[in-house]
Amino acid sequence: MELKDYQRRALDALRTFLDQAAIRDHAAAYAAACAVGQPGAYGASYRPLKELPEVPYCCLRLPTGGGKTLLASHAIGIARDTYLSRRYPVVLWLVTSATIAEQTLGALRAINHPYRQALEASFGGAVRVFGIDERRQLRPQDMADAATAIVSTVQAFRVNNVADRNVYRDDEELEPHIASLPAGVDLARHQEGARKGKPIASFANLMKLHRPLVIVDEAHNFTSTLSGETFGRLAPAAVVEFTATPVKSNVIVSATAAELKAADMIKLPIHL
Fold it and tell me: pLDDT tens across 230-255, in order?
């Protein structure tokens, strides 16, 4: 699927930010990315993630209908090429609801869908996509041989949400991921019982082990949920947000409704 001019500009800004973040401080990387992405009034001084200042953190602002999910699919390959230190990254793709998670998961799995094709092009077909409820199917060798994307609602990571906090619980199906780890790896550990001091075989620990790229869709809805503490449990390598209405984000590009209209992305009449 051919990208529109504003979409290419957005990805160029992301590429600049992550490429520069690998060799410079993140404030300088942000300034360089803004020069490319032209965020206009949304540009401000760089704000690091609370409690994780070493993690590069940026936001792409696109109006509704601007192709945020398509760009998120392209962003994974860009992150691999510029910042991430592994051929096949692990991606935690966070959305706002179970309905959106199901839609996103379906699109990323459909071979002929543009989202899937963007991933396939970046990784030569070596792509696996899971829903958060399929996390027990993850196998160490599979994650070593293909880019692995896990789609989840953000609610699954709320510690005070009893129904969804299984991501922090010990799970024997995930034991192979941590069975042969050397001592001293920084993971959450059992605090009592026969396994005191041993790493917990949890999904959260699995993410922390792999340092995922975190994609945040409709990020403006997460401002009261995604705390520095939550991210600290997952140890992301980088965080990239996509939203139409950023709140407190490092916006590196801002597409306008006029740009979408010019690119035939808006079919209804628009008054500027």
Answer: 788 899 999 999 998 887 789 999 98
Strands, sheet with 147-153, edge to edge from the N-terminal-most edge strand: 127-131, 147-153, 90-95, 213-217, 238-243, 57-61, 251-254
Inter-residue contact 206 to 174 (CB < 8 Å)? yes
Contacts of 194 (CB under 8 A, 6+ apart): none
CA distances from 16 to 187, 201, 241 (A): 32, 36, 15
Instruction: Please write the tens of the pLDDT for every residue from 9-39.
Output: 999 999 999 999 999 999 999 999 999 999 9
pLDDT in tens, 112-143: 999 999 999 999 999 999 999 999 999 999 89
**78, two tokens:** 């860009």
- Name the nearest CA neighbour of 82 among 33, 146, 148, 151: 33
Q: Is the dihedral of CA 118, 138, 170, 196 positive or negative?
A: negative
Q: Rounded to an integer, what is the distance from CA 177 to the centroid of its chain?
A: 21
| C-alpha torsion sign, points 209, 81, 56, 138 | negative
Q: Which domains does the chain have, with CATH numbers?
A: 51-59+69-241 (3.40.50)
Give the pTM.
0.91
Give yes or no for a contact between 265 and 67, defined as CB atoms under 8 angstroms apart. yes
